Amino acid sequence: MLPCVAAALVAVLLAPAGVPAAVPCAAGIVCADHLFVDSEGAAPEQVRTLRAQGRTADAAALEKIAGQPQPEWVTGSADDVAGQVGPYLARARAAGGRPLLVGYAIPGRDCGAGYSAGGAGDAAAYELWSTAFAQAVRGSGAIVVLEPDAIPHALQGECAGDPDARYALLADATRKLAAAGAAVYLDAGHPGFTGDVAATADALRRSGVTQAAGFSLNVANFGSTAENVTYGTAISTALGGKHFVIDTSRNGAPDAADGWCNPPGRRLGEAPTLNPGIPLVDALLWIKRPGESDGDCGGDAPSAGEWYGSYALSLVTPSK
User: Under CATH, what is the fold of the domain 31-316?
Assistant: First the structure.
């Protein structure tokens, strides 16, 4: 049984002032002390379009999304990685910000049947992809969140195949990325996904978390920061003190109606920061890019990962 959320709030309030940013930077690499804000992508493009249409109020509202650091999601094949990652890293380098990427190509991704189904065709293809990914980020000091939902799905037995094989692929990818100087955070789901601290910690160990900077929580989910601090602290204790990051992109209204696919009533959460001032928490990040669809689950919702303009506006202007 997890401690109550109130305990997490007390822990946050009692955190010592000025807890330093703790996202590690590999030896020999100079890392920026702030996250890169990309001027490319669907949100900035939407802002520019709205301004051109004279919709200045909507453009200003969406600046709350477009003006924040968000990651590049790396989802293609090994042959696609360099072309996807290279331009993003070049923009980050030119701007002097620390890059943030999400690796999302595990075989059987989203159990092969969800809105985000896809990924590498088999283990060999994934090994090629992770090699290409590591080569692409080498020396950049990038923060990499690795494979959202892959471990929780394996723990719940939802996906076909051998969980041990999946953990081995994750461990191999973690090793390669860490050797390339990336700060890797293996995804561990959220309290409502598995809620099993011991099993999650064991799966993280088997997936190479000892070689990683830590683990990530709440990716594309809506749980409160305090709830995830409590859960992450428990996992960290089981792992001997590993740090973690929390996705706050859409957790500004954690008590809104249930639902995970473009649910109404949600709000942006705390802004991304590398200095959250919370023990064990290296960063608060917008890992899910707010305003992008969770899937074509009704209404006018587009496919997962595509820009969903009306939903984006609802995150910042609930009356829309």
Answer: TIM Barrel (3.20.20)
